[in-house]
Amino acid sequence: MVICVVRTFVAVDLPGELNVKIAEIQSKFDDFKFKFVDPALVHITMKFLGEIPEDKISDVSRALDNVKCEPFEAEIKKLGVFPKPKFTKVIWLGCEGDFDKLYESIEQSLSSFEFEKNLYRFSAHATLARVKYLPKKKKSDFLELLEELKDVDVGTMTVDSIKLKKSTLTPKGPIYETLHEVSLR
Questions:
Q1: Which of 14, 72, 161, 183 has the maximum number of C-beta atoms within 10 A of its C-beta?
Q2: Superfamily (CATH H level) for 5-183
């Protein structure tokens, strides 16, 4: 018997009206050959679940229905990197709001499953680009740009739902499909 698995994560989508500002910020890095996330796909990953058997999706969806967190206002602002500026692998936007409370409720709701625990403390962010390589001669330009954009303000949003998403990786980038949506209450 073949068991189909689905690559999944729980996310908060950013509203479409922030796409233009996100694209604007990304365009400032055009001189660098980074792998940018399509602005329409930029989201806040609340929990990466990994590969789960297709027949468990309804169980995970039901568990997520138990998330208890009231809708809240969030600010999408500040630009940062992981793990550190001189050795950047990811460029991200900061997300401020009740994300820790939401994260804890998601963790609680999914506690009966054996998903891997996060290695790092949860930090709400939206990935803008992945950095595979940064030539030494461009490093100072990059660090200057980071400094210039560190206090960028993208906008505000209401966080009123979370989504269980399927991620299909393709050579042209990921394709996301919403499998289940939970309204916050």
A1: 14
A2: Cyclic phosphodiesterase (3.90.1140.10)
